[in-house]
Design a protein that fits this description.
The complex is a heterodimer of chains A (165) and B (423). With 165 residues, chain A is α/β, with parallel strands linked by helices. Chain A contains eight helices and seven strands. Chain A has a seven-stranded mixed beta sheet. Chain B is built from 13 helices and 18 strands. The chains are: A alpha/beta (165), B alpha/beta (423). The complex binds iron/sulfur cluster.
Chain lengths: 165, 423
């Protein structure tokens, strides 16, 4: 799988309260959530973001609450991948479980700038920064997690099991 | 392989003896938790995947605590979805308005979580039950849906940090000051993916202190916080008719770091905006006028927390420029606080007292801040916009500091306004 898009850069410790503020948690509809995604850190994100764009952030991205509304709102915004130096653990599992591609890549996190165009090849674990003419490499996920991502999320892995029964 | 306490509990729940940090396993859960915000997504996922039956209707707990009593029509709709699910699938442990409490105070109180259990919850502060010597961790709604369906969760085996506690806390210092100073030392991602295991001399920490400490392990990024078991744990479990199921860390278990914490050295501590690791002793806070004080939440809304606040507020009035909101974490705590006279004390001193709810803790309702306002809260997060406007501020503190602040109208310790803790 390959994706390509423009970069939105964010700092360390982007928490789930700024990704999707609690005042909007009375809904779990992707579209509604996407309209408020990143609102408290980047007020016009939802109007700027285009399908395929990529978030590149520092360390501990997604710290805070367990709200799946956070990766859901990012996915529904059209973001094709989140790259960070590293992720907070609940955000990490939530993103995998709902099939939002994420990559840990300290090199890309340090070097990418706002507006850069990236192309990502997930099979190769390769991030190409077209604007800077650079290539960054990341580790592939363990097989178990690959399987979840390839099935399109954790629940799809049981769907297949339920159908088999 | 020798194991930490956490690794032992996980190993027992996936019937594997040999596990190593970083390995991913499928483990059996003893309880799955969800609330009014996270359950609706999980329920939809569960139903979309073709789920016809839950794995065990007695091992799921659903608690309506965040936006309840329903704060608006959309919140009401979410609770309704959960109620319908509960009826449809015969879920046994459902707690709605009238008998609910904040989930992480309620489940231990009811004895629904026990030592040795493996508990997951679609709420990040599920790590609270580590106080009882359980492995419990926060997950998302999809994990919750998967566990409701299969009774299982995927887990990466964590490495661990060990905290050996020494000596006893002094004066007004409580569990909150202990965990705030530890988070200040580690940083908000200092324990990322890891367990925090607490051992050593636990005798000066009550169960309520331990719940508060384990509750905030996530604020250092930890997967879980867990306490060794002692006489206090056993008594707590006995009172609830539970038998203690002890897993001891191997004496040669590997820890990434071992910290010795001298409890006697810890001073009343505050986390300044906008991260829980931005800590300093309250006596070095300077002059900070405060508009609102919130005493409550899954961190510090328990009976002992209210007892401390009442002791400080008794015979005093809250500052004219400061709004004070007290929220007992469960109905039982509320009732006990009435019987002990704490609620009268709060009302006489000028506080508002609310039915249990998460409410202002997450900027939901019941105490939202305007632009430029500052609050001292006994809650666990002070992120940008956490309690309202993005230009408002939250200072995290213990119930003692919060109560003293309520009287002074500025951030202070009880000692600073001449109130000593004489036992
Ligand atoms: S009291 Fe606050 S931290 Fe605790 S469960 Fe409720 S919203 Fe979450």
């Amino acid at each position: 799988m390959k994706v390509k898009g423009k970069v939105f850069v964010y700092p360390d410790n982007v928490d789930t309260d700024v990704i999707i503020p609690a005042r909007y948690l009375n809904s779990s509809d992707g579209k509604e959530l996407a309209a408020h995604c990143m609102e408290d850190i980047d007020s016009d994100f939802s109007s700027k973001v285009k399908k395929g764009d990529i978030i590149v952030a520092g360390s501990n991205f997604g710290c805070g609450s367990s709200r799946e509304h956070a990766p859901l709102s990012i996915k529904a915004s059209g973001i094709s991948c989140v790259i960070a130096k590293d992720f907070a653990r609940i955000f990490y599992r939530n993103a995998i479980n709902i099939g939002l591609p994420i990559l840990e890549c300290p090199e890309a996190a340090a070097q990418c700038e706002q507006g850069d165009t990236l192309e990502i090849n997930f099979e190769l674990g390769e991030i190409v920064n077209i604007s800077k003419n650079k290539v960054y490499h990341t580790f592939a996920f363990p097989d178990f997690l690959q399987n979840i991502i390839q099935s399109g999320g954790l629940m799809n892995t049981i769907k297949t099991e339920v159908e088999k029964k | 392989m020798s194991k930490t306490m956490t690794q032992k509990i996980i190993a027992a729940h996936c019937q594997k003896d040999d596990i190593y940090p970083g390995e991913i396993v499928m483990a059996k859960v003893d309880l799955v938790l969800g609330n009014d915000i996270t359950s609706p997504i999980a329920i939809r996922e569960f139903e979309n995947s073709g789920g016809k039956e839950v794995f065990d209707r007695e091992k799921i707990a659903l608690i309506m605590d965040h936006f309840t009593p329903n704060k608006d029509i959309k919140a009401a709709r979410q609770c309704l979805e959960v109620r319908n699910f509960v009826k449809g699938y015969g879920i046994k442990h459902f707690f709605d308005v009238g008998e609910m409490g904040i989930e992480h105070a309620l489940l231990p109180e009811k004895g629904l979580v026990k030592s040795g259990d493996l508990v997951i919850g679609a709420d990040s502060h599920t790590c609270t039950y580590g106080a009882l010597g359980a492995f419990s961790t926060g997950v998302g709604s999809t994990d919750m849906a998967y566990a409701m369906s299969t009774g299982k969760v995927w887990l990466r085996i964590p490495s661990a940090l060990k905290f050996i506690l020494k000596n006893h806390v002094q004066g007004w210092v409580s569990g909150k000051d202990v965990i705030l100073s530890i988070i200040g030392m580690l940083g908000v991602s200092g324990a990322r993916y890891k367990s925090m295991e607490f051992d050593g001399d636990l005798s000066s920490l009550s169960m309520d202190d331990r719940f508060c400490i384990a509750n905030m392990a996530i604020e250092a990024g930890a997967k879980n916080g867990i306490f060794s078991i002692d006489e206090k744990t056993m008594e707590y479990e006995r009172e609830r008719g539970n038998k203690t199921n002890e897993y001891k860390a191997d004496t040669d278990a590997e820890y990434e770091s071992i910290f010795e914490i001298d409890l006697a050295q810890i001073r009343p501590t505050v986390a300044f905006p906008h991260l829980p690791d931005n800590t300093r002793p309250v006596d070095e806070a300077g002059e900070i006028p405060i508009d609102q004080v919130v005493i409550g939440s899954c961190t510090n809304g328990r009976l002992e927390d209210l007892a401390i606040a009442a002791k400080i507020l008794k015979g005093n009035k809250v500052d004219k420029n400061c709004r004070v909101i007290v929220i007992p974490a469960t109905q039982k705590i509320y009732l006990d606080a009435i019987e002990k006279g704490f609620i009268s004390t709060f009302i006489e001193s000028g506080c508002a007292v609310s039915t249990p709810t998460c409410g202002p803790c997450l900027g939901g309702h019941m105490g939202i801040l305007a632009q430029g306002e500052k609050a001292v809260a006994t809650t666990n997060r002070n992120f940008v916009g956490r309690m309202g406007h993005i230009k408002s501020e939250v200072y995290l503190a213990s119930p003692a500091v919060a109560a003293a602040t309520a009287i002074a109208g500025k951030l202070v310790s009880p000692e600073r306004i001449g109130i000593r803790n004489e036992g």
